[in-house]
Amino acid sequence: MATTRNPIAATSQVTVLGLGEMGSAIAKTFVDRGYRTTVWNRTASKTAPLVKAGATAASTAAEAVAASPLVVLCLLDNAAVEEVLASVESAVAGHVLVNVTSGSAGQARANERWASEHGAGYIDGKAMGDPPYVGTPDIMFPFSGSRSAFDTHEPTLRELGGIAYHGEDAGLAAVEFMAQVAVAYELLIGYLHVLRLVRAEGVGVVEFAERVAGSVAMYPSLLTSMGKAVQSGEYAPDLGSLNVQAALMDGMIDHRESLGVEAVRMREVKELMDRRIADGHGDQGFSSLFELLAGSSRT
Q: pLDDT at position 218, please?
């Protein structure tokens, strides 16, 4: 299928540093959308497919940075970012760096300080999706950092997929990314334990999975209401009161342990419920357990 080229983008210039699977997908998207794309990779042979597609390969990272006002870094980790930044420090003044390498909020803020000290704009970003989806709505890029730089280059960044700007604090995109990924892992490991339980009882896991997929339709409104409860500190009895919920937990724990299925998380939940009830909050809901997760003070 032919790619629709953007006539406005035809004269735009962008550099991509790092050509792993994600970096290559990003660079290919820019090439396909008509951007004059310069690429660099430590292993130079990785530039060949992109050069064949229409990109220009630079022999050094500094040369690649000098070629474009907008420079996208997509490297293995923050150690690689720091190493590349050290090699281009003489070339970055007046350019905007967009770093989509996975890393922490603290690392993003440190990179932003480095960029500012060297006269460059800085935007931190994270890729929430897989390389084949770059350039489509099925991948999301949260960004944070320089507002003026983001506003200037927003049309170019939108070529990559869905985007959202989270604020001038350069660490906020990493906070969003890490939190979203954490929710997925917490949910999915719990789900796998449940599948272990279901299979141990002789129930078909595929059929059960299909039923669960239908029941999760209730979760968006529940998640939103729990967020509002945590923000306000007013805990309605979501999922029922803790007094009622706690009465279910011993049975759930016994059921798991009788089948040799891990019950550590259920025991943790029961302990938190018991503590909250003992503190006189048995009429509140599951969201009120938040109060016990970070010590005695609310933030």
A: 86
Closest by CA to 156, choosing from 18, 15, 279, is 15
DSSP H helical ranges for the chain: 21-32, 48-53, 61-66, 78-88, 105-117, 147-157, 172-200, 205-215, 219-232, 242-258, 264-278
Tracing tokens 């969003």 back to the chain, one arrives at 176
Exposed, middle or buried, 255 (CB in 10 Å: 0-12/13-18/19+)? middle
Number of separate domains in the chain: 2
pLDDT of res. 78: 95
CB 288, CB 276: distance < 8 Å: yes
Q: Which domain holds residue 152?
A: 9-169
CA dihedral 25, 31, 37, 39 (to 10 degrees): 30
For residue 280, the domain's CATH number is 1.10.1040.10
pLDDT over 70 for what percent of the chain? 95
Residue 265 near residue 253 (C-beta atoms within 8 A): no
Mean pLDDT over all residues of the chain? 93
Q: Regarding beta strands 121-125 and 96-99, do their DSSP bridges make them parallel or antiparallel, or are they unpaired?
A: parallel
For residues 99-133, one letter each, b for 16 or more C-beta atoms within 10 angstroms of the residue's C-beta and e for the rest, the string is bbbbbebebbbbbbebbeebebbbbbbbbbbebeb
What pLDDT band is residue 279 in, cutting at 50, 70 and 90? very high
How many percent of the chain have pLDDT more than 90?
Answer: 92
Q: Inter-axis angle of helices 172-200 and 105-117, to 10 degrees?
A: 160
Residues 24 and 155 in one domain: yes
Residue 210: burial class (beta carbons within 10 Å; 0-12, 13-18, 19+)? exposed
pLDDT at 2 over 70: no
How would DSSP label each residue in 205-247?
Answer: HHHHHHHHHHHGGGHHHHHHHHHHHHHHT----TTS-HHHHHH
